[in-house]
Design brief:
Helix content: 25-40%
Number of strands: 18
Oligomer: single chain
Largest sheet: 6 strands, mixed
Radius of gyration: 26 Å
Number of helices: 15
Strand content: 15-25%
């Protein structure tokens, strides 16, 4: 099947999108159809229509971002980023290239003394977006590798440093945008057509200039989503302009690529590529900002000055409010009713926000496990420190689900520790693991305030369904065991209006995505 003509309505939508990318979002933009010349000095530097990577831009970026690397190492990085293996699928190529682009390309070279050096060639500068080249190409002609007589014309391809990260299929405004997926993208991604055009792809966009949806290379149409808000406080809008501004603003695109894409093998069937939904990116970024504020507070208060110890006396029958707040929450599933001591040692933070990162309330079915994974990995990559993340739940099925998600997404390995007892949990917390998984019931031993499990201040406890079991004796033991840890709660259930206890433990809402917004 050869390429087909494009009508004036489609071309008008293309021009509108390209103009918005150029004039509003700061991209470079070129029109390629019947105007592209080939060769090193051609319009895009391509040697032929079979090339999907703009090697000229890629090489220039590698040289600019890695001034310490010799030419041989740059050539090696280019070769790795353009290699096509006919034995591998589109998804396998995509997953491998995503890792190379995000983490850098491993290269070897000999220095002036003849010693072998190992390095990672940076492909994109994620911290300084303006150090990269963003180029939108309209009507790019592409030829298949397996079937060279198969030509296709891509409506709009968005390149970063020569790599085709976003593929946009556009239809006339009166057309249903699903036709762009069913009639075009499915065809393009066939291994016998131009599947290699999607080897480096971050996500796909389909639009008719009015409405727009996005998805990954493994998404069925039902899982193509809308991008409704640029900020969590926005009322929401499904117009294409919101999606463009929310996903293709240069810093947002790089944030999405680096921190909000996962490849999940935890479920039956093929690996699924997951691109964060709008509420996940907004909520996780707010949670990461809370960690950054926490780090600033830690610099303000040296570790030895952050805690103060005191003793409170609580009558057994009087002052019901205070008793309830210190009592064992029956929902913690402990076997017998608690007996309250008259004297209770209390450990308090000198600043009310120390240790409190807030509560993320995202309604049921909103991908809470993925949000936890996005959060932990972005903190690990972007906030300075050697953090340990403790994933805390109150049910075995939730613990297994979160553990399987983290393993399936390659965030942790099968050997990542899961505490099977209170003694083992104490032992693990005294060590230095990147991730730990446990039920809160493992904090079943009394902890003396002067003998915590760990005094580290770079432990972040991520509590699932935070409101259920975080106010009783087990939770108190956990906080005594980890006096300098920071706590963030994730829940799919809204907190009650007067649930001051959960807010006092975790802090206020950091992100809210309720059922009405999810609809």
């Amino acid at each position: 099947m050869a390429y087909t003509d494009i009508n004036s309505e489609d071309r008008l939508v293309q021009a509108t999108f390209a103009e918005h990318l150029e004039k509003v979002l700061g991209w470079d933009s070129v029109y390629a159809w019947n105007q592209e010349t080939f060769g090193a000095n051609g319009l895009l530097g391509r040697e032929s229509e079979r090339e999907v990577v703009l090697v000229r831009d890629l090489r220039a970026a590698l040289v600019r971002l890695n001034p310490q690397l010799p030419e041989s190492a740059v050539n090696d990085a280019v070769a790795q980023l353009t290699r096509h293996d006919f034995s591998r699928s589109l998804l396998q190529h995509n997953q491998a290239f995503h890792a190379l682009i995000r983490d850098g390309v491993p290269v070897n070279y000999r220095d002036a003394q003849g010693e072998t050096r190992h390095a990672r060639a940076q492909v994109i500068d994620f911290r300084r977006p303006l150090e990269n080249r963003f180029l939108a190409v309209r009507e790019l002609k592409l030829t298949g590798l397996r079937t060279p007589n198969y030509n296709r014309r891509a409506d709009l391809v968005c390149f970063v440093n020569g790599l085709p990260l976003v593929f946009i299929e556009l239809k006339a405004v009166y057309r249903n945008i699903r036709s762009g997926f069913d009639g075009n993208l499915r065809d393009y991604m066939d291994e016998h057509v131009i599947a290699h055009a999607f080897h480096h792809n971050a996500f796909l966009i389909v639009s008719n200039g009015d409405k727009a949806r996005y998805g990954s290379i493994t998404s069925d149409w039902e899982h193509f989503g809308e991008w409704k808000r640029l900020d969590e406080g926005d009322s929401g809008d499904v117009h294409a302009e919101v999606l463009l501004n929310g996903m293709l603003a240069r810093e947002r695109l790089l944030d999405l690529f680096e921190n909000f894409i996962l490849f999940d093998a935890s479920k039956p069937g093929a690996v699924r590529k997951v691109v964060a939904r709008n509420h996940q990116m907004l909520g996780v970024n707010r949670a990461v900002a809370a960690v950054e504020r926490q780090e600033a507070l830690k610099r303000q208060f040296p570790q030895g000055q952050r805690l103060q110890h005191r003793v409170v006396e609580i009558p057994l029958a009087a002052n019901a409010t205070a008793a309830n707040e210190l009592a064992l929450d029956k929902r913690a599933a402990e076997p017998s009713a608690p007996t309250y001591p008259r004297v209770v040692p209390i450990v308090e933070r000198v600043h009310p926000d120390l240790g409190r990162l807030g509560v993320v309330w995202h309604t049921q079915g909103s991908g809470k496990s993925y949000s936890m994974a996005f959060f932990a990995e972005k903190v690990r990559r972007t906030v300075e420190g050697n953090f340990t993340f403790v994933l805390m739940t109150d049910r075995n099925d939730l613990d297994s689900q979160i553990y399987k998600t983290f393993v399936g997404c390659g965030i942790v390995g099968d050997s990542t520790p899961r505490a099977e007892s209170g003694e083992k949990l104490e032992e693990l917390l005294r060590e230095n693991h990147r991730y730990l998984f446990s039920l809160i019931h493992k904090f079943n031993r009394d902890v003396k305030p002067d003998a915590p499990y760990s005094e580290r201040d770079d432990i972040i406890v991520i509590s699932d369904e935070a409101h259920r079991t975080q106010a009783g004796k087990l939770a108190r033991n956990m906080r005594l065991a980890l006096p300098n840890a920071a706590f963030i709660g994730f829940t799919g259930t809204p907190l009650f209006k007067h649930d001051h206890l959960t807010k006092r433990i975790f802090g206020s809402y950091v992100s809210r995505y309720d059922f009405k917004r999810s609809e």
